[in-house]
């Protein structure tokens, strides 16, 4: 995986923040007083038992939900009131739990469609050869990087579930985002796919910030640098996996479900 980013690993710097973030649904407080610092070249996980508020925080950070309270910044800019479609252009993209690839297009075609969007090439009838070469070069690079070369001409519908997710992550990388948000990227996968996708996320996190909601705690322990644990909408622990897994409140929160 050497083709994704141009940037070399750097010192940690905060690229995405939340301060005092809160969300009420018809009087019910789903998220309250959440502070987050997501750093460049680090993988940050949001974990917590069912109903803890992970998805709500994720949707607030990506602006798919408007916060009731608090402030969010991206690369130093206040995005609390920014529309989600502007966020991608500012350098933050999200994946979805449900695969967003076009099933009847091949792997290469899916990647090309994703690449044409940011470049605004889709609406042009005539392209200079140099632009097409750049596009093809970048498509090949992404296909190679994500280990999809063998399936270049395979229709997305025929890919395994895990490879479909990989293709979906590859398409989100078309914008070359500095901040990547992944919503349960390993959900529903078998062991082999989990290993493959976890390895890809680990590589992506070397040169960009990744914030992910994930239930698979052994993968979180393995690849994440920072973990924020939510319970009933509030942060109960934050730090390395070694730190949070020893926290008595975290152990209690997970008791009866899955021990971190
Ligand atoms: N649109 C909504 N309207 C009302 N309540 C909501 C809404 N979305 C979420 N909630 C409530 O907010 C709380 C947090 O939900 P959320 O989906 O964020 O938790 P979660 O940690 O992602 O859970 P899970 O792990 O089960 O996906 C839950 O009690 C949920 O019922």
TrEMBL record:
It holds the Pfam family BCA_ABC_TP_C. It comes from the Bacteria. The keyword Lyase does not apply. The keyword ATP-binding applies. Keywords: ATP-binding, Nucleotide-binding, Transport. GO terms for molecular function: ATP binding; ATP hydrolysis activity. One of its GO terms (cellular component) is plasma membrane. Residues 16-257 form the ABC transporter domain. Transmembrane segments: none annotated. This is ABC transporter ATP-binding protein.
